[in-house]
Description:
The protein is α+β, with helices and mostly antiparallel strands.
Amino acid sequence: MTWVDCTCARCGIPVKKDTREFNRSSRMGRKLYCGSSCAGKVGNEPRKSISVELTCPCGKVFRSSTKARASKHCSRTCASVFSDSEDRRAAQRAGGHATKKNLIQTTDTLKLREGWKYRQLEVYLNGRQFEFEYKIDKFIYDLALLDSLIVVEFDGPYHAGDAQQRIDAIKEDIARKAGFTLVRRSVPPASIISPETIFGL
């Protein structure tokens, strides 16, 4: 085996190369390096990121780099404000529509949350057509006796206010237009509702 004296094309260190390797590299126009470290550094040079100066949409000039995931904005606040594009909002809407079936309805949420109050009533009403947290139009009523077209509202002390009474009047009007009679019963707050509350309905 014969050797040829040459110089590393990157670091300039003298190195000996096999004559066959030297001839093959010369024919193919390849440079010779002292080892894989220098060869790798030269090969990765085009992909190496460099420091650059960018202008944020807010007008501020800042330092970043050419990395794929480098910052495009001067701060997190600007990134949040200026990256909220129409395309991004459309993608968020599409994601929301895709998972819409996973959402629970308001009436179902109330039935889960308020169900403990209606335990005794549920036993008492066995055999009748009824539904707790019954929705008519945009309002939800505590109990609907569907076989007698009566909706019952179990009112606590908070129903005494003027604002609440205005809402109650609207609910009563909507129930009447839907063919129901609205009946109000006063009950203690945060307590199980006794069947006696709806005797005669």
